[in-house]
Amino acid sequence: MIRLRCVVEHITYQNEKNGWSVMKVKVKGYDNLVTLTGSLLDVPVGSVLLVDGDWRVDPKYGQQFVAQSWTEVMPATLYGIEKYLGSGLVKGIGPAYAKAIVSRFGLETIDVIENDIERLLEVPRLGKKRMEKIRDSWEKQKDIKEVMVFLQGHGVSTAFAAKIYRKYEKESIAKVKENPYQLADDIWGIGFKTADSIASKMGYEKNDPRRC
Predict the structure, then answer these.
(1) Nearest-5° angle of CA 31, CA 35, CA 40?
(2) What integer pLDDT is reported at residue 188 of this predicted model?
(3) Range of the domain at 16
(4) Is the residue at 52 inside a domain?
(5) What is the pLDDT, as a whole number, of residue 117?
(6) For 77-96, what is each residue's pLDDT tens digit?
(7) CA 159 to CA 149: how far, in whole Å?
(8) By 3-state DSSP, what share of the chain in percent is helix, strand and coil, each rounded to 5?
(9) Are 100 and 152 members of one domain?
(10) Among 44, 138, 183, 211, which one has the highest count of C-beta atoms within 10 angstroms of its own C-beta?
């Protein structure tokens, strides 16, 4: 297993149902953009990712890095923050507002949005309605990240994690904790064996009645 740190520069393809994506990413030490494939749910241009996976050569498309799991880290430069916010990830922020917000708050921008979002009203022409739209969108993205981290931590592949989120959305963690065996009935592709493996990693006993 190899780990890459990369920045998403371009999205070639993204399946909204299962999160399967083909992206062009920038990787330090590589002159050309690298093709990244895998289940990368709602990952937009500008995202900084730590990706675990392996290289493979596709007969048609050439060398690719296939993601097995991934985590998103916040960009640490002004350019990265501006590109991240202006990518379309956060509803209510386009390139122009991203530039204005980063100009006002600099490297504190992410912290402001995360912990003191009403300060966005300090940005010229950014009103309360837009600020609330940004807040709602930001919270949704947090939900997605929390669900993906939780599920991957219990042995759920990114592909299945994407399907689980699409089914249960912000209730995903609670649903899986309540009864992981329900996944076999609700999620296409997850059978009893997979659900049982998830339950085992969560500490369920073999004699648990929900296993029947």
Answers:
(1) 130
(2) 84
(3) 2-73
(4) yes
(5) 94
(6) 888 888 888 877 788 999 99
(7) 13
(8) 50, 25, 30
(9) no
(10) 183
Does some domain include residue 137? no
Polymer length in residues for the chain: 212
Local structure of 57: helix, strand or coil: strand
Same-domain status, 50 and 107 = no
Helix (H) or strand (E) holding 140: helix 128-153
Q: How many domains does the chain have?
A: 3
Q: 141-161, pLDDT tens digit by residue?
A: 777 777 877 887 777 777 777
| Distance in angstroms (rounded) separating the CA atoms of residues 138 and 209 | 39
Gap between the Cα atoms of 199 and 187, Å rounded:
15
Q: Which of 178, 209, 205, 183 is nearest to 194 (CA)?
A: 183
- Alpha-carbon distances, residue 206 vs 37, 73, 155, 179, 211 (angstroms): 36, 37, 18, 14, 7
Place of tokens 């009935």: 185
For residue 191, give both structure tokens.
Answer: 């059978």
